[in-house]
Amino acid sequence: MDHPFHLHGTQFQVVERERDGQVARSPYLAWKDTVNVARGKTVRIITRQERPGARMYHCHILEHEQLGMMGIVDVRA
């Protein structure tokens, strides 16, 4: 099942996607706060954090979030 990954309080760019060892660079860079992560795929992102504090990330499917697909990025200056 796909997972719409969301990061609070900032934006990111998808730099690569990988499936079965095959890595594909993104054809363009765009600022996002949500990206779809397809089954069996790895998505690599880059973000810039300019303010310290906690940022929550999670799957936007509520049942998945409730089952633990969420966490905190702790940004420290």
Structure description:
The protein is mainly beta and about 80 residues long. Helix content is about 5%, strand content about 55%. It has 1 helix and 7 strands. The chain has one helix spanning about 60-65; strands at about 5, 10-20, 20-25, 35, 40-45, 55-60, 70-75. The strands form 2 sheets. The chain has a 4-stranded antiparallel β-sheet with strand order 4-1-6-7. The longest helix is centred in the C-terminal third of the chain and has 5 residues, at about 60-65. The radius of gyration is 13 Å and the shape is globular. The N and C termini lie far apart (about 35 Å).
Give a brief rundown of this model.
The mean pLDDT is 92. By secondary structure, the chain is mainly beta.
Low-confidence region ranges: none
Distance between the termini: 36 Å
> Mean pLDDT, as a whole number?
92
Query: How many β strands by DSSP?
Result: 7
Provide the succession of SSEs.
Answer: EEEEEEHE
For the structure shown, list the relevant keywords:
77 residues; mainly beta; 4-stranded antiparallel β-sheet; 3-stranded antiparallel β-sheet; 1 helix
What's the SSE blueprint?
Layout: E1 3-7, E2 12-19, E3 22-25, E4 34-37, E5 41-47, E6 53-59, H1 62-66, E7 70-75
Antiparallel strand pairs: 1-4, 1-6, 2-3, 2-5, 6-7
